[in-house]
Amino acid sequence: MAGYIFSLDNLNSLSLYTRNGVYATKLRSPAGYWAVHQEGTFTDYASMRAGDNVYFFIGRKIYGIGKLIDVGRDCKYFNYPGAGEPQFGNYETIKQKLLWDENEHSVDQRCVCTFIPDPHFFTSGIDMDDVLSSNPAAFKMLRAFWKLSFIKFDDDENQAFRDIVLKRNQDQLSGSSVAERVFDYKPIHNQIAEKVHSGDYSIGAGISSILSNCADGETLRHEMAIEAGLIYQLSVKDPDTCAIFGEWDYLSHQVIASPFKPIDYMDKMDLFGYLFIPGFTPTKSRYLVGEIKREAAIEENIDQLLKYVDWVRDEYCYGDYSIIHAFLVASDFPDNVIHHNRNVGLRKYTVGVRPAQSLEWSNLKLVKYSYNSAISKISVSLMG
């Protein structure tokens, strides 16, 4: 299971969300367009799946554990029809259509997700320093949790979160000593299920709106919007998109790809994912590494992506290039870029000991994207 950690201002908010089993991020009202960080939030929602764990962060402390569940057709929705449009909302107009109502604030709560305790939301928070020191090698994204409403992390980091939370609350895991709060999530979840059945609250409709508002002919003005479209299309297993990229059990974006350093200078992969060997989770069979450019690619983009490939080889694959699938996405690929990929997109490596095998990796694919306004979708095709 993947995991999410949501940042809150106070314990009252923690009680409100955990009691009702709903979380809604507050976004600054748009000024006629979505900013990149807002598109990033929509991208994170698009990749949510039932079963992913949720945690909350308040004043240096982490509280958990919950689990996303499908209510109706999905575990995440836009909070009201049209919430994907970059325009000011009117509370009185949308009040009756809201999935989650926090008074006037709800206008800026564009997305919601639904969850239940897994097994409990424990009353004692754990200091971030204690969390980080409990398994230093496992925590990657948590170290970059800065000026964000929430972050997503992979199965290994999520297990490290679960381990420390459960270890610190062993006395509350069984018998009459379990310290449970009052959870009233069923009435709210039932209301959400009823509304989404009759209205268009789907994340897909919102992503389509984001793409159309960011379109400039067949290209998109923000690389983050391309990330949102591709991650959504891969998450719902769109056949045309999966035919190029394949299918993945875990998908994320803006994943750290450099040693720890000041946040603003960290390298981040635009696309990252992995696939489990069917029936043998959590053993991973391949990794996805992607770099996105909204305009035509240049030679340096190939070099940057190969840097990420080397990082994933060392950090996740322990020297084995063969399970890495790399993709450079751009609006076009001049001949010099295609030739540069053929010249430098090769890695030689050795696996095994007795006997050792010398192998070559050249699995970097060039993917041309275009925005298809007729169906509000990103179309992709292989180049070179």
Report the strand count.
Answer: 20
Mean pLDDT: 93
Instruction: Give unreliable regions as ranges.
Output: 175-180
- Can you give the helix content as a percent range? 25-40%
Do you know the CATH architecture of the largest domain?
Answer: Roll
Task: Domain count, please report it.
Answer: 2
Query: How would you name the CATH homologous superfamily of the largest domain?
Result: ph1033 like domains
The first-level CATH class of the largest domain is given as Alpha Beta
As a whole number of angstroms, the C-alpha radius of gyration is 22 Å
Largest sheet: 8 strands, mixed
Task: Note the total helix count.
Answer: 11
Shape: globular
Counting helices, strands and paired strands, the structural category is alpha+beta
